[in-house]
Specification:
The chain is mostly helical. The chain has helices at 11-34, 44-70, 84-112, 137-168, 176-179; strands spanning 119-121, 125-127. 62% of the residues lie in helices and 3% in strands. The structure holds protoporphyrin IX containing FE (2 copies).
């Protein structure tokens, strides 16, 4: 089952969710590590190139995921006893996670292209810079990027705890249906 239904996530949503969640966690660690390196460290340039290349691919995945979500059904809450407040806050958190992912990646792009040069992605293709920049763009976008990265990781942590709470305390299939497709046989 590739597409979502009213009660289950399909494989495409599940794969996009987990590939992106794991990559974002890795990008957060890589980001914190690479800004501590100096010009004389062997991995100074390599780590930055890797971070930028993966970041651009991640932006592509995010565009695909947003498109997929728009043309697809979204499952209703798996928790039959959820209050209106819980359902609305879960939706708001999902929306905030999308907005944070977009703004984080755009701010990363703006740091990297502040000098007017494009981004080379894994030596395969390059993404151009926009033809104008603002004063101190690199520093301003850098500050914003750092703050957004922390906010995204903390909010994703709260979101993950909520998923685990549904599994352990409420004992419903909120988490399980994001791990594997729920068909009538395995429900
Ligand atoms: C989900 C995606 C991303 C995450 C989680 C992430 C995370 C981070 C973190 C934690 C830092 C260290 C910030 C600091 O302590 O100063 C950082 C720095 C940086 N990121 Fe990202 N980043 C992401 C995407 C991107 C993208 C798409 C680009 C560019 C295409 C990018 C370019 C940079 C650059 C150039 C720096 C170095 C900033 C500096 O030297 O101050 N990042 N990133
Ligand atoms: C950076 C990390 C993460 C991000 C950005 C993220 C983002 C999202 C988003 C946007 C959704 C809404 C469905 C969609 O449009 O794809 C979602 C659903 C979900 N996520 Fe995450 N997620 C992250 C990590 C996690 C982790 C670590 C867990 C579990 C431990 C988790 C469990 C879930 C579950 C169970 C759902 C389905 C919720 C429902 O059916 O209402 N997520 N996630």
């Amino acid at each position: 089952m590739l597409k979502n239904t009213k009660t289950a996530y399909g494989w495409i949503s599940i794969l996009l969710h987990w590939v992106m969640a794991l990559t974002i966690a890795g990008m957060f660690g890589l980001g914190l590590y690479m800004v501590e390196l100096t010009y004389y460290d062997a991995w100074y340039k390599g780590s930055l190139d890797l971070h930028k290349s993966i970041g651009i691919l991640l932006l592509g995945f995010l565009l695909l995921r947003t498109l997929w979500r728009c043309i697809n059904i979204n499952p209703d809450s798996a928790d039959k006893h959820a209050s209106k407040f819980e359902v609305t806050s879960a939706h708001l958190v999902h929306l905030a996670l999308y907005l944070l992912m977009f703004t984080l990646m755009i701010s990363g792009y703006l740091i990297s292209t502040a000098d007017g040069r494009g981004i080379m992605v894994f030596e395969v293709f390059s993404v151009s810079a926009i033809p104008f920049s603002v004063a101190n763009q690199e520093d301003i976008a850098g500050e914003i990027h750092e703050i957004l990265a922390w906010v995204l990781v903390v909010l994703a942590g709260v979101h993950a705890l909520a998923a685990v709470k549904h599994h352990v305390i409420n004992k419903n299939n909120t988490l399980v249906r994001m791990l594997k497709v729920q068909t009538t046989e395995n429900k």
